[in-house]
Amino acid sequence: MDKLELQKTAVEIRKGIISSVHSAKAGHPGGSLSAADIFTYLYFEEMNIDPQKPKYENRDRFVLSKGHTAPALYATLAERGYFPVEDLLTLRHIGSYLQGHPDMKHIPGVDMSSGSLGQGLSAAVGMALAGKMKKKDYHVYCLCGDGEIQEGQIWEAAMFAGDRKLDNLCVIIDNNGLQIDGKVEDVCSPYPIDQKFESFNFHVININGNDFNEIKKAFDEAKETKGRPTAIIAHTIKGCGISFMENNIGWHGKAPNDEEYKVAMKELKKAGEALCQK
């Protein structure tokens, strides 16, 4: 898929995020939107996966450590063909399989249940180690939040991954600079994130996480890196793609009302139409 098609797909995923959170009247749009381009590249270009065989043994694995941004994962899985796009509107509804956090027992394409911050990377490290022990060729990708890496368990997992030289593991940090209580640097600064991961024997790449050229280059470099895991520090815009949500901490964990929904969808429709003119 070329860059233009990736951009078009990312717009559709952002539509799915907004539609599902609006329908649920709850959820986390800000961090879902910031990571939408990462999700798009992973599921439509990078990972070896098959929606028709979601449990295929040699598939690449993905763990959403910052599980509250499930709307982005669900919108991506739906767009990729794991389940109907229409089901996104059942997010968080009673009886829906699309819960507020990813559930591997009920949602096709979800490799790990998550939601408790800090725990996902440990699961991803375990998957990567299992791949090495079984001499499998699959890769494991784990998306963490920049606020989430304030959790100590993240660094215990990172220490283990670096020590075991798990070069089949790629950690992506969605560094949008904001968490529920404010700026990450003000709450409990994780900076310098790159130097911290380097000290745990990670190969580190800093990128603009909303630019597909840089995203592609980073994942290509990660695949070529041998002897140690990779951490991609993706500098992103919280709420990316919706003008009134961008860099606005208020949109960390609330749903748009009907009027805000209309404005957001109008912006996304316009963005999609502009891409179609290229």
TrEMBL record:
Its cofactor is thiamine diphosphate. Keywords: Thiamine pyrophosphate. Pfam families: Transketolase_N. It comes from the Bacteria. Coiled coil: none annotated. InterPro entries: THDP-binding, Transketolase_N. Residues 10-266 form the Transketolase N-terminal domain. PANTHER family: TRANSKETOLASE N-TERMINAL SECTION-RELATED (PTHR47514). This is Transketolase.
